[in-house]
Amino acid sequence: MTDRVLILGGRGRIGRSVAQDIATHTQAKITITGRSPGTVQGADFPLLVLDLAEVDKLREAIANSDIVVHCAGPFHYRDANVLKLCIEQGVNYVDVSDHRSFTKKALNYHQQAVDAGVTAIVNTGIFPGISNSMARQGIEQFHEPEKVHLSYLVAGSGGAGVTVMRTTFLGLQHSFEAWINGQWQLVKPYSEREVVTFPSPYKRSGVYWFDMPETFTIPQAFPKVKSVITKFGSVPDFYNHLTWIAAHVFPKSLMQRHSAIEFLSHVSHLMTDVTNVFSGIGVAVRAEVTGKINGKNAVYSSTLLHENTAVASGYGAGSIAQLLLSGQLKQPGVWPVEAALTTDLFTQTMASRNIKIEQQLRS
Asked: Are 157 and 235 in contact (CB under 8 A)?
């Protein structure tokens, strides 16, 4: 019997990338959803018109699936109802969520998923997602891992739609807690610029504190780690300065208005339509772990580069779906990807997608 995959938000660019990856690596029958009828560019998947607010229709669609992949962001606005319905129907679940509040809501369903025998993996895109597995790979090199420093860089629009712009601006609204030196400390978004060396063509680029769910999921998965730093930046660099202004100069009351977020998101997307021509739409991830090996200090770093951010995100979620469908990954409960995916399976799926991760360990 052919496996059935339901991709919520499958008409978006990341959703389409996930669908294409699953189609490439499995024989599954894929259905994508959108809130309105219409053609889907560059994809040959049946479309189910579905609004997530239509609970009965959503429940029926989930019941007729073997796995659900939730790509309908931004996740700042989402509750965990899709996950709840998957657990009720005994259907495995994957998402590309990228926001702390949503991740916490999802993890609250852990025991229900265990009891139902449902494996649910959250945060499976590129960052969080592939980046988290890169961090796990580094942590496993150490007897005493101490610090994880994750840096993300996106060129232009990243090949994604306006939703990604919304996610960026929504992430500037509030200070957030980060795990630093064994305690929770409040950090201002888009603060403490740091210049990090990425692979060519990006090389030395600026990154800033950004609220990501791995700031708390990595310490939970690996309690020995005393600090987790997550920083994000854009190419070209002037976008960083504009984002910094939005975070630190614009009144907080303005940045917390839905209308302001929409305006900034659409203007930014129009700007990247112009700059994409020379900046590209790629992504770079750098994971650096410091700690002790046999009592001696060491530093492990790994880097990943891809020419299309949305496609790379599709690889992350698609690979998890592939492993669930094949039965290679079966771990009932709700898990952030770094807590469920072994490094062996991670390296296998990345290699099958021609993703090269450069690694270096130095003492």
From this structure: no
Output the CA angle 10-230-17, nearest 5 degrees. Answer: 15
Instruction: Give the Cα separation of 147 and 144 in Å (integer).
Output: 10
Angle between helices 214-221 and 100-107 (to 10 degrees): 40
Residue-wise pLDDT tens digits, 188-226: 999 999 999 999 999 999 999 999 999 999 999 999 999
Express each pLDDT in 225-234 by its tens digit. Answer: 999 999 999 9
- First vs last C-alpha separation in the chain: 52
Per-residue tokens: 22:
């699953």
Distances (CA, A) of 212 to 16, 44, 128, 178, 330: 23, 33, 7, 9, 26
Q: Helix, strand or coil for residue 250? A: coil
**Least confident segment among 32-46, 55-69, 300-314:** 32-46
Identity of residue 197: T
Q: What is the pTM of this model?
A: 0.93
> Reduced to 3 states, what is the DSSP secondary structure of residue 118?
coil
Is 135 exposed, middle or buried (CB count within 10 Å of its CB: 0-12, 13-18, 19+)? buried
Sequential DSSP letters for 198-236:
-STTT-EEEEEE---THHHHHHHH-TT--EEEEEEEEES
Which two tokens mark 193?
Answer: 């610029």
